[in-house]
Amino acid sequence: MTFITSKLKDLNENRQQNSISSDNHSETFNSSSPLVTRFRFEVNEVIQHIRSKIWGQDEVLEGIEEIISIA
Question: How far apart are CA 52 and CA 32, in angstroms?
Fold first, then answer.
């Protein structure tokens, strides 16, 4: 049982270190700054492309359009 005990001890120590590390990072994050994403696309262009490839699925395409608009 020595092996499992040492593994559990290591796991607990790693969790504590990660917790401390994430606390330090949360202090540097400014919640008032806008979210910056690497994704850049025009919703209408994406929808037009999808509609040109998929036929007869209007309800599904409307759902996809809504989800893309949110993203």
Answer: 40
Burial of 20 (0-12, 13-18, 19+ CB in 10 A): exposed
At 3-62, the pLDDT tens digits run 788 888 888 888 888 776 655 554 455 556 666 667 677 888 988 999 899 888 889 989
Residues 6+ positions from 64 with CB-CB distance below 8 Å:
47, 50
Whole-number Å distance between alpha carbons of 34 and 58: 34
What is the Cα–Cα distance from 41 to 36, expressed in whole angstroms?
14
Task: List phi, psi (to 5°) of 62.
Answer: -65, -40
Helical residues (DSSP H) of the chain, grouped into ranges? 2-28, 43-53, 58-70
